[in-house]
Amino acid sequence: MESTTPQDAYQDGNMLAGPLSEIFLAEMTRTVGTCAGCRTSHMLAQLRVYGHAPGFVARCPACGIVNMRLVRGPTDVWLDMTGTLNLRIPMREA
Ligand SMILES: [Zn+2]
Q1: Which residue from 30, 38, 39, 58 has the highest number of Cβ atoms inside 10 Å of its Cβ?
Q2: pLDDT score recorded for residue 17
Q3: pLDDT tens digits, residue range 41-80?
Q4: Burial class (CB within 10 angstroms; exposed 0-12, middle 13-18, buried 19+) of 61
Q5: Of all helices (H) and strands (E), which one includes residue 17?
Q6: Ligand 1 centre and the CA of 75: distance in Å?
Q7: Could you tell me the distance, in angstroms and rounded to a whole number, from the CA of residue 67 to the centre of ligand 1?
């Protein structure tokens, strides 16, 4: 018989829907990202965005690696953040 500890308890990903929808309504241009390549932090507005691909490709202003890819299809959006370690998103006080 398996036992569960409080550390094993989890909820499914549906619980993230509320917090994520709040984040993606935030003022994103003041968001600060950390590059996975060179570890520098920069505001989203400082990324170098190229739009001649099927979507948008955003490159680090310091080292040039791809930080983000965004493709908008008719019914879905693909967002690849492989080149970004983290985002710090300014929010209004809760
Ligand atoms: Zn970089």
Answers
A1: 58
A2: 84
A3: 999 989 999 998 789 999 999 999 999 999 999 999 999 9
A4: middle
A5: helix 17-23
A6: 31
A7: 8
CA gap 46, 65 in Å, rounded: 14
Q: How much distance in Å is there from the Cα of 64 to the middle of ligand 1? A: 6
C-alpha of residue 62 to centroid of ligand 1, in Å: 5
Instruction: Look at residue 1 and tell me whether its pLDDT is greater than 60.
Output: no
What distance in Å separates the CA atoms of residue 73 and residue 42, rounded to the nearest whole number?
A: 28
Q: How many residues does the chain have?
A: 94
Residues 6 or more apart whose CB falls under 8 angstroms from that of 29 comprise: 43, 44, 45
Q: What is the pLDDT of residues 2-54, one digit of tens each?
A: 566 777 888 888 888 888 788 877 778 889 999 999 999 999 989 999 998 78
> How remote is the CA of residue 76 from the centroid of ligand 1, in Å?
28
